[in-house]
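To: structure desk
From: M.T.
Subject: fold request, one chain
Message: Could you run this one when you get a chance? Sequence is below, nothing fancy, just the single chain.
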Amino acid sequence: MERSKYFHIWLGISALLIAGSAAFFSVFGLSKLFAGAALSVVVMAGSLELGKLVSAAFLYRYWSAVSWFQKIYLTTAVLVLVGITSAGIFGYLSNAYQGATIEFEKQSTTLTYKEDRLEQLEDDKVYLKDELEQSIASLPDNYITAKRKLREEYNPKVLELNDQILDVKQDISDLKVGLVQTGVDVGPAIYLARTFNTDIDSVVKFFIFILIFVFDPLAVMLIVAFNQALVLRAEEKNSLPRQGTTVNSEKKKRWWEVYGERKPVIPKIKILNKLKKESKVEERKLGKGGVPIEEDI
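Reply: Done. Structure tokens follow.
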């Protein structure tokens, strides 16, 4: 079956991009985990990522030539490094998710507090009005001046509560607008959480686990596939004839072999005629009586 001439190039580019992306996310994820020595972790993790890919390629190319100890150790090392890379990717994506949702969660908490505060202020306002009405009702009808003084005492308190309620309502409105703007970043997660009747964190963890189970293992397998394509391509090139030469796997067939016939047998008559011609030539050279004819010089 004819293979694409440039497929191995696309395979190599794909393997390089996926492996490079996995290494980038893993290295920076591990550097966030060990923030105290970020540069050292980047160098160490980057070296391990390169060693993992080279080890996978080495195992494919020289599997039959190395000892069982090397096979077991290198295979174990590759699998462990795949796990470490996946953990680094998980850390990187978790940090990115927390960075996107921390403001959302902060605003949600503040909004809950403001709503509780608004409810408390409204209850205080109702209680204050009820207290004012009860105080006025307890006075006789002819105590007009006393009733007016009571109203004057309670009015500033009511006005102060009204101002506080207006401020809290304004804060709540601003927080709701901010939540709409911030929720755009995590909107799909919020929608999925509502669809499956769960919280946002569970949805995000589920998707991160799916990504890490596919990401780095796919990168390693593509590296192996790329080496396989190179080996097969090299074998095909070695089997092809060199430039300027022709391949004759079989001897050049003669005309009777082309048509599936046997080698023709020369008739005896032709042989006898050939012998007669040769004898006549000899007689001419000898002359009569068997005496050689002298040739003119």
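Reply (cont.): The chain has a mean pLDDT of 76. Let me know if you need anything else for the meeting.
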